[in-house]
């Protein structure tokens, strides 16, 4: 594992839609799941305009009502089954490996926090050959579909002497900004994932079109 930097900006990376370029797999899995429950498919633009967390609220926007617990469980299971099939074809977002290495060479630390299930996340990240760039890799524990805020809180608890005030969260979802604010960290949001630019801009944090821009901003924000 990488060695933490001292009194320098720490990055907390999101995984799906940020480091992993999987938005088309997410959309494909969503539409495959929708087909099994008689919901109309979404275009990428429709998905980005509609998606929100907690995810049952996303389904409420499509159904006109909150799904029942049984409906939510079925849709969640269907999505993850189809996503697992499609994720294997996904690559890292362009330039990710260079950005991770360059950040470490600058004497800074970084970690990864995802709402992808922890037991699935670890072997997937390892398979892309980048696990060693992070001081810690944490995925979701407990039920899916909720917010990242409490997971972010626990992430910093186990990071030890890395203070949220010296950290920048880089993610593709409004919930990444919410989770960052929950612990007192900064955030930069990336347009390559689950949300439209207008949805991200409503979060009130910087919004960028490339991860290189996100890292450049992070260097200025918290050092």
Entry keywords:
alpha/beta, disordered N terminus, 223 residues, two-stranded antiparallel sheet, six-stranded parallel β-sheet
Which value, in Å, is the CA radius of gyration? Answer: 17 Å
Distance between the termini: 23 Å
Name the beta content range. Answer: 5-15%
Categorize the overall geometry. Answer: globular
Structural class: alpha/beta
- Average pLDDT value? 94
Biggest beta sheet attributes: 6 strands, parallel
Organism: Streptomyces pratensis (strain ATCC 33331 / IAF-45CD)
GO molecular function: phosphoglycolate phosphatase activity
InterPro entries: HAD-like_hydrolase_sf, HAD-like_sf, HAD_sf, PGP-like_dom2
Protein name: Phosphatase
Overall description:
By secondary structure, the chain is α/β, with parallel strands linked by helices. Helices cover 48% and strands 15% of the residues. The chain has helices at residues 23-36, 44-50, 55-63, 69-87, 96-105, 118-127, 149-159, 174-183, 197-201, 211-221, and strands spanning 10-13, 20-21, 91-92, 109-117, 137-140, 167-171, 186-190, 207-208. A 6-stranded parallel β-sheet has the order 5-4-1-6-7-8, with helices on both faces. Helix 1 (23-36) crosses helix 4 and helix 7 (149-159) crosses helix 8. The protein is globular. Mean pLDDT is 94; it is low at 1-6.
Quick structural overview:
Helices cover 48% and strands 15% of the residues.
List the helices and strands and how they pair.
Blueprint: E1 10-13, E2 20-21, H1 23-36, H2 44-50, H3 55-63, H4 69-87, E3 91-92, H5 96-105, E4 109-117, H6 118-127, E5 137-140, H7 149-159, E6 167-171, H8 174-183, E7 186-190, H9 197-201, E8 207-208, H10 211-221
Parallel strand pairs: 1-4, 1-6, 4-5, 6-7, 7-8
Antiparallel strand pairs: 2-3
